[in-house]
Specification:
6-stranded mixed sheet, single chain, 10% helix, 154 residues
Length: 154
């Protein structure tokens, strides 16, 4: 069994392992960096730690996120901060502090490995290597993201 933090980009529900999440914050002031790649939204100072903020919508082909009151920043644990349990489950993230910008947060769901199915070709994601699989929920699909692939391309 694994707990998944869910969030939305447009109307699509995505999820990542809760073991990889350091915290979820409302957006705080970002410092833009000129001439950076489009998905790089800026830097924040999180209690003295500089965190790079990426726009997950751009990376997944949904376009630039319009920051609203419901927008949230998911701060991902670094590889060094991951627990032994996370490492045992094959979770890898990034060596540097990273945050991902999402439209809104969903729920924390518990899923079993047997519920995860392969990613169908019609999933609205620009690059299928970012998708670990899908879980069929009662009224929608949950797209599980492959954090290692996603963060290695940021």
């Amino acid at each position: 069994m694994e707990q998944i933090v869910t969030f939305y980009l447009n109307d699509t529900l995505f999820g990542i392992p809760i073991l990889a999440v350091q915290e979820i914050n409302p957006l705080i002031e970002m410092t833009p960096v000129p001439l950076s790649q489009e998905s790089f939204r800026g830097l924040i100072n999180l209690r003295g730690q500089v965190v790079t903020v990426f726009d997950l919508g751009i990376m997944l082909g949904f376009g630039k996120r319009e920051i609203q009151n419901r927008s949230r920043l998911i701060v991902i644990k670094t590889n060094e901060e991951l627990s032994d349990v996370a490492v045992t489950r094959g979770i890898k993230t990034s060596d540097d502090p990273v945050g991902i910008l999402v439209d809104t947060i969903g729920d924390v769901l518990t899923t079993d490995e047997t519920e995860i199915e392969g990613s169908p070709a019609n999933i609205k994601v620009s690059d299928q290597k970012y998708v670990k699989g899908i879980v069929k929920l009662k009224d929608q699909l949950l797209v599980l993201l492959h954090l290692e692939s996603l963060l290695s391309n940021m």
